[in-house]
Specification:
The chain has 3 domains: 1-86 and 171-185, Periplasmic binding protein-like II (D-Maltodextrin-Binding Protein, domain 2); 89-164, 3-Layer(aba) Sandwich (D-Maltodextrin-Binding Protein, domain 2), CATH 3.40.190.10; 186-302, Alpha-Beta Plaits (2-Layer Sandwich). The protein is 30% helix and 30% strand. It is built from 10 helices and 15 strands. The strands form 3 sheets. Strands 1, 2, 3, 4, 5 and 11 form a 6-stranded mixed β-sheet that branches. The protein is elongated and about 80 Å long. The N and C termini lie far apart (51 Å).
Length: 302
């Protein structure tokens, strides 16, 4: 098995920063690839030990390319998550002034998070989307654009000047990255875990979503994310992406999974893994392991 970690490149992306946070000991070789789909494919082909891809941003929400790649390969599992604080700078070649900037390149998520700053300081500049902020920075270094909205790491990677620093409209924005492995075994619970699922209901009907949510509500499981996404099977056909604060091995989560598997057309389990912030959600008294053990003992005694 390769010791490489595939990640959304090129060098200088926030994803590379997430790789280095996760693999701080440097046990693996970072391997930039052009797309999230290629990072996931590298796992399937045995070319990488793991893949690190962006999953969710605190300002712009989920990353569609990652959601689609996870749907396309049902053997991929999330084994960990990494939180990276997002900081954007305006990067240019040396000698470029703000008045010289006519064309700015960046990733659409970065453009959305710096929209107000760009409107105030570069109202007449053309904004060009790129596949990543680092790719935009590399293009600037090669003479393709006047400026890029990218990370300080991209400035170092491509020898660019930080013409303006910390230009994000909101301070403290975070991006959540997930570490993926192929056919990964379920890890032991830590007490502060998250489970990610994709549920496809049988048909769109009144009460279908309520039926799904009740599987969690009656078992005291907090949902930290619920999002509907198209299945690709036709207009109006949607699946539900779910993050739940519980581990699959906990009795309450195990029962919820059984209930969902019975009542949904399909249920994708994408992993139970430690929360990056280490925060353990509250567990109601009626839903803790002791309550389930007592209920099981009562039933066995009948």
């Amino acid at each position: 098995m390769s010791s490489r970690i595939a990640y959304l490149g090129p060098a200088g992306t926030f994803t590379e920063q997430a790789v280095r946070q996760w693999d701080d000991a440097g046990d693996h070789d970072p391997w930039p690839v052009p797309t999230v789909a290629q990072a996931v494919q590298a796992l399937a082909d045995g070319q990488a030990h793991a893949a690190v891809v962006p999953f969710e941003n605190s300002v712009e929400g989920s990353v569609p390319a990652t959601l689609q790649a996870l749907l396309d390969d049902d053997r991929v599992r999330i084994v960990e998550e990494v939180l990276v604080e997002v900081q954007f700078d305006l990067l240019t070649r040396a000698g470029t002034s703000l008045e010289d900037v006519q064309v700015v390149a960046t990733h659409p998520h970065a453009a959305a998070q710096t929209r107000d700053w760009l409107a105030r300081h570069l109202p007449g500049a053309q904004l060009v989307p790129e596949s990543s902020t680092a790719q935009a920075a590399r293009a600037v270094a090669e003479g393709g654009y006047d400026a890029a909205v990218a990370s300080p790491e991209a400035a170092r990677a491509y020898g660019l000047h930080r013409l303006a620093e910390r230009i994000a409209d909101r301070v403290g924005a975070l991006t959540r990255f997930v570490v993926l492995q192929h056919d990964a075994a379920l890890r032991a619970p830590t007490g502060a875990d998250r489970t990610t699922l994709v549920a496809l209901i049988w048909q769109n009907r009144p009460g279908a979503l309520l039926e799904l949510l009740e599987q969690f509500a009656v078992r005291g499981i907090d949902l930290t994310r619920l999002e509907s996404r198209p299945t690709g099977e036709g207009l109006g056909e949607y699946c539900f992406w779910i993050d739940a604060d519980a581990h699959a091995s906990e009795p309450r989560m195990s029962e919820a999974l059984l209930g969902l598997r019975r009542t949904c057309r399909d249920l994708r389990f994408l992993g139970s893994y430690p929360r990056a912030d280490g925060r353990a959600g509250p567990v109601p008294v009626h839903a803790d392991e002791q309550a389930y053990a007592q209920a099981r003992a009562w039933l066995d005694a009948l």
